[in-house]
Design a protein that fits this description.
Elements: E1 6-7, E2 14-16, E3 29-31, E4 36-39, H1 45-55, E5 60-64, E6 78-81, H2 86-94, E7 100-104, E8 108-113, E9 129-133, E10 139-141, E11 145-148, E12 155-159, E13 166-169, E14 191-194, E15 200-203, H3 209-220, E16 223-226, H4 230-236, E17 244-247, H5 251-266, E18 271-275, E19 280-284, E20 292-296, E21 299-300, H6 301-311, H7 318-321, E22 329-330, E23 334-338, H8 342-349, E24 357-362, E25 367-372
Helix pairs in contact: 1-2, 4-5
């Protein structure tokens, strides 16, 4: 059971600096007295959850990948008393989003879909769980956050202050002991306003952009896939002619910066799409999100087509749908990238076999048939 803790210092703002596809709401998380923490309507659910994990010394948050957590916002103001334990605090937040459930375990929080609720959460097509290590996601606060455990009254500071550029505002606290909107940055006596840390890497003249991108994406836990024209690919793998910086505050910011730089170097618009489930980033020349990724796995071609069909809501019945004389082995795993429709992906997938087999799509029943090419 998580230790009970008393909040005994005033927080002006808490922001979780996340990697991955997350964003922080403009509505802040604020403590407005010794007894209360207020999560305001519109605040990021991910921010609130990770803040509570840090507050109760929980090491990770396990998110069901079926949930698109980047779009979730708290739908009403939530006030948490400092005497609440971790589960009670989570219940207070997730009551505002009844489609989801959050469970506090010994060292972690697990966020899942609430099967008992008829509501619909923002969904993704991913499966499994993504574990966010809270220790690696610093929470930026205005002052050290001190806790006492309620038993021996020993004070400790589990949250580290992060060096930032700051200004001071000395307006008195609100009489009703509650903050909303922009007032949460001003209402507490002697508030330090936090500016996010500038996080970037510099690609020096003479170094290859491709190596910098691969190295930085590896730090985020991702790998790149390049679908570029010859001119852009040459620039990517050539030595830079001048120094430039890339924002590394999050994988989103970094990927956007790389795509922008590649567009500048190659003279053709480069877009990028992040696939959190498989931890891959595709840099491509298709329009914005009009790109699909399928990861071929070692085994049989027929099995891969069957799995691809499921990904698009189609099917391949191998008994009646595989009409070709021969199936083919797949000896290594590799990605297939194409425009975001099943015909384009299948065409790309079957390109090595285009003199032997071809696909036919029956739209009315969403079924794939594989036949001999001749």
């Amino acid at each position: 059971m998580p230790k009970r803790k008393l909040l005994n210092s005033v927080i002006a703002t808490a922001i979780v600096a996340m990697t991955g596809c997350s964003s922080v709401s403009n509505s802040p998380v604020a403590a407005v007295s010794n007894d209360l923490v207020v999560f305001e309507k519109g605040a990021s659910l991910q921010t609130a959850t990770n803040y509570l994990a840090k507050m109760y010394d929980l090491e990770t948050v396990d998110w069901d990948n079926k949930i698109d957590r980047t779009k979730l916002r708290i739908t009403k103001n939530v006030t948490i008393k400092s005497t609440s334990n971790a589960q009670d605090a989570l219940n207070s937040v997730y009551t505002a989003i009844p489609q989801l459930a959050a469970t506090a375990n010994t060292n972690s929080i697990k966020v899942t879909l609430n099967n008992l609720c008829d509501g619909k959460a923002a969904m993704s097509n991913n499966h499994g769980y993504e574990t966010i290590n809270i220790d690696s996601q610093p929470i930026i606060i205005t002052t050290p956050l001190n806790f006492s455990n309620g038993f021996n009254q020993q004070t400790k500071t589990p949250l580290k202050s992060v060096a930032t550029k700051a200004t001071l505002d000395t307006k008195p606290a609100l009489d009703n002991n509650r903050m909303t909107g922009a007032e949460s940055l001003k209402a507490v006596t002697t508030v330090t306003k936090i500016q996010p840390l500038k996080q970037s890497i510099q690609v020096n003249s003479g170094n290859m952009l491709s190596l910098a991108v691969i190295k930085q994406l590896d730090k985020f836990g991702y790998s790149p896939i390049w679908m570029l024209n010859d001119k852009t690919a040459k620039s990517l793998n050539s030595k830079a002619v001048s120094n430039f910086e890339l924002n590394t505050a999050s994988v989103n910011d970094f990927v956007y910066g790389v795509a922008t730089k590649l567009t500048e170097l190659g003279g053709q618009t480069v877009n990028a799409k992040i696939f959190p489930g498989s931890k891959q980033v595709v840099f491509h020349l298709h329009s914005a999100d009009n790109v699909a990724l399928y990861n071929m796995t070692a085994g049989r071609l027929s099995t891969n087509i069957e799995n691809l069909a499921k990904q698009f809501g189609w099917k391949l019945d191998q008994k009646r749908g595989w009409l070709a004389a021969q199936d083919y082995p797949i000896s290594v795993d590799y990605p297939v990238v194409a425009e975001n429709n099943i015909d384009a992906v299948l065409t790309k997938m079957l390109q090595p076999y285009n003199t032997k087999i071809k696909h036919q799509l029956v739209e009315s029943i969403k079924e794939i048939f594989i036949v001999d090419a001749k």
